[in-house]
């Protein structure tokens, strides 16, 4: 009685004369999982990421911020440390995030419309919603 494959079971392993032998790592790679939907997962995460809407300031609030900027400009040589909260637009979707930074003011560039901090942070003046710091407390307390 013959068993299945008896006719080929003892034949020598075929070695190609035209193709190089595949390395073990390349052989294993052909069986690794295929992630066809990696960009889909990234798109789902991006869609789920929440953003804030920009707050529109009224004229009173804009005037108060302008006064505070003028106070900082008057005392710019002191490099006052202030806390600024501003809107940072999202580069990928509508909205953005409100960021608060505490640093010393290096320069107010009215031409470019930005405040440059000593740590290198550049803040667009039009995106600022609040400015606070010791410079204002001593001014109003005193």
- Oligomeric state of the chains present here: single chain
Q: Structural class given helices, strands, pairing?
A: alpha+beta
On the 0 to 100 scale, the average pLDDT is: 85
Helix content: 25-40%
Q: Numbering strands along the chain, what is their spatial order in the largest sheet?
A: 4-3-2-1-5
Question: What is the CA-atom radius of gyration, in angstroms?
Answer: 32 Å
**Gross morphology:** rod-shaped
CATH topology of the domain at 59-141: SH3 type barrels
Element-by-element helix/strand order = HHHEEEEEH
Largest sheet geometry: 5 strands, antiparallel
Count of helical segments? 4
Measure the end-to-end span.
111 Å
The percent range for strand residues is 15-25%
Structure description:
This protein is α+β, with helices and mostly antiparallel strands. The chain has a domain at about 60-140: SH3 type barrels, CATH 2.30.30.100. About 30% of the residues lie in helices and about 25% in strands. It is built from four helices and five strands, in the order H-H-H-E-E-E-E-E-H. Strand 2 (about 95-110) and strand 3 form a beta hairpin. The protein is rod-shaped. This is YolD-like protein.
